[in-house]
Amino acid sequence: MGEIFSPGKLMLTSEYFAIDGALVLAVPTKLGQEFFFDEKEDGKSLIFWEAYHQNKLWLKAVIDYENWQILETNIISSAEFILKTLKNVQSLSETKFKGINSYYLKTNLQFPADYGLGSSSTLMNNLGKWAQIDPFHLNSISLGGSGYDIAVAKEKSAVLFQSKPEIKYERVNFNPSFKDELIFIHLNQKQDSREGINFYKSKKKSQKLVDEFSDLTRNILLCNELENFSDLMLIHEQKISDFLEIATVKARFFNDCPVFVKSLGAWGGDFVMSSKFAGFKDYFWGKDFTTIFEWSDIINL
User: Fold this and answer.
1) Share of the chain above pLDDT 70, in %
2) Which is nearest to 161 in space by CA: 102, 213, 106?
3) How many Å apart are CA 159 and CA 179, to the nearest integer?
4) Does the pLDDT of residue 269 top 80, yes or no?
């Protein structure tokens, strides 16, 4: 049985605006998704799919890929998404799901599904590597989105990413001197990224604003002082708040916090980033936000 691993990701800049070509800075996480695969010459043309969340079985499906039918499953909606995605794999691949062999495919998501670290993007990248197809193309036709998370999973590195006029990305060394002062707090809920993206798309935006986020990303990447980094994060957060006409996460949950708090990805859930201050653990725990990671706990750089 073969094995592939893709790390999860945290999007530090240009959430939403990534879709319109703003420059994104994103980093890989220590936890990600494993993909195990085996193939048997049994003449049945079946796919035996098992998806685990932190080593506990979550989804099981048997799919007939000759007729693309779900023969059995415990969660029909999730199995339908897997069927659609694997059918896309077949259309893009020169070798997978072409004959009469059966495939035994297993995934294991190493982090809780509500963390928003990229359960779908790590799957797309693992399938792309396994089938020797372009994971960006697979992601585009299966899910949509800018694709920045695919770049992180593919490179296993911090990346600068841009989706327009065409996808381009580069590995970057993002190792700020103040990284041990940064913390990541989970908001106890998963935000629906597609719902957030649809809301963003419904609003009129200018190229000037997109360019402003690219400039912020470049400046954030070059920061070597926490104070400057914090100021840029506050500016970034306020710009998106003004555009979306949604209060910042700090205004909603942490109005009396003495330092910056910045959303990471779709607003309203998943993780936020902040920095340490005297009594920071007691402060966040007192508001029932008890999942707090330091840089070294979660970031794989």
Assistant:
1) 98
2) 213
3) 17
4) no
Strands 102-109 and 46-53: parallel
- The SS3 assignment for 232 reads helix
The model carries a pTM of 0.93
Cβ(24)–Cβ(296) below 8 Å: no
The whole-number pLDDT of residue 196 equals 72
| 239: enclosing H helix or E strand | helix 226-244
Single-letter amino acid code for the residue at 235: I
Of 247, 283, 275, nearest to 259 by C-alpha is 275
Instruction: Return the ∠ at Cα 205 (arms to 202 and 210), rounded to 5°.
Output: 125
187 dihedral zone (left: phi>0; alpha: psi -120 to 50; beta)? alpha
Six token digits for residue 263? 């959303």
Concatenated DSSP letters of 109-173: E-S-GGG-S-HHHHHHHHHHHHHTS-HHHHHHHHT-S--HHHHHHHHTS-EEEE-SSS-EEEE--
- Average pLDDT of the segment spanning 121-147: 95
> Which residue, 230, 216, 290, 293, is CA-closest to 261?
230
pLDDT of 192 strictly over 80: no
d(Cα 115, Cα 238) in Å, to the nearest integer? 24
CB atoms within 10 A of CB 200: 19
CB 121 within 8 A of CB 9: yes
247 near 241, Cβ under 8 Å? yes
Q: E strands within the chain?
A: 2-11, 24-40, 46-53, 56-64, 69-73, 102-109, 159-162, 168-171, 182-186, 261-263, 271-275, 292-294
